[in-house]
Amino acid sequence: MKIYSKPDSRLRHNRKSRCLSSEADKAKSCFLQKSLAKCRVVGHDRLLECQPRTLDFYREHAREYCRFTANLSVGELYIPFLKEISKGSRILDAGCGSGRDTKAFSAKGFAVTAIDASPQIARMARDLTGQPCRVLSFQEMDFRNEFEGIWACASLVHVPRRDVSDVLRRLARALKPLGILYVSLKEGKGEIITPDGRLFCNYSLTEYAELLTADGLFKVAKVWKSKAVDSSGQVWLNFLARKTA
Ligand SMILES: C[S@@+](CC[C@H](N)C(=O)[O-])C[C@H]1O[C@@H](n2cnc3c(N)ncnc32)[C@H](O)[C@@H]1O
């Protein structure tokens, strides 16, 4: 199997982000240059071999990655998700990255539990939010019936295809009955490795909707596509899925 890998469009998208200090700009520019290396084709064996490199990437680039993703303006995405849960309820920020969304939800009065598989990223999230962030992978989560909402923004993209059903089961188990899950993923086909070494698993809308609804785990409440604001044309898939009672 051949897999075509291309740069992460979120990075390209972020090229235009505003209001960064010159130090942050420098770090960002250097980071982007590395990330925007040429597209390449890799074999499946290489893909499997490279999978742990996703976390290597976040270890090596935690500071600069968090520095610019913390400033992204994603407030529009919160609206449909927060409409589904009552004030003060518990949210799991799954793969929280910089802690940007944990911070925003906490400020709105929600009780947020933040997790991330990368210890270096978790440290950055703690610094930003002043709250705990557990170092925990999706594959190891064992929450039961604890959250009204789960926020998985651009994080399940890194779950290898073979782990997806198990991870979705764990997410469903973590939710209370009728709890709501938000997921965003890149539209595309199959597993790829970006030039920076990260594994991304991309989907079509119907493909991921089928995974969410398999075994009656979730009902899809809303799906929509959003476009990166750069010329990459990368389309993001957004899902709100309700745990069945
Ligand atoms: C593309 S970033 C998105 C971060 C944040 N949600 C945001 O929207 O800015 C993906 C995050 O998922 C984390 N991650 C990757 N694989 C993971 C796994 N298996 N379990 C938990 N977190 C993971 C990474 O460390 C990283 O912080």
Q: Can you walk me through this structure?
A:
The protein is an alpha/beta fold and 245 residues long. The protein has one domain: Rossmann fold. Helices cover 37% and strands 27% of the residues. The chain contains nine helices and eleven strands. Strands 5-4-3-6-7-11-10 form a seven-stranded mixed sheet, sandwiched between helices. β8 and β9 form a beta hairpin. The radius of gyration is 17 Å and the shape is globular. The model is unreliable at 1-22 and 24-42 (pLDDT under 50). It binds S-adenosylmethionine.
Beta-strand residue fraction: 25-35%
Low-confidence stretches: 1-22, 24-42
CA radius of gyration is 17 Å
- Give me the CATH superfamily: Vaccinia Virus protein VP39
Shape: globular
Pattern of helices and strands: EHHEHHHEHEHEEHEEEHEE
Small ligands present: S-adenosylmethionine
Q: Overall mean pLDDT score? A: 83
Write the layout of secondary structure elements.
Layout: E1 2-5, H1 9-13, H2 22-35, E2 40-43, H3 44-50, H4 53-69, H5 75-83, E3 90-94, H6 100-107, E4 111-116, H7 119-129, E5 133-135, E6 147-152, H8 164-174, E7 175-186, E8 190-193, E9 199-202, H9 205-213, E10 218-227, E11 235-243
Parallel strand pairs: 3-4, 3-6, 4-5, 6-7
Antiparallel strand pairs: 1-2, 7-11, 8-9, 10-11
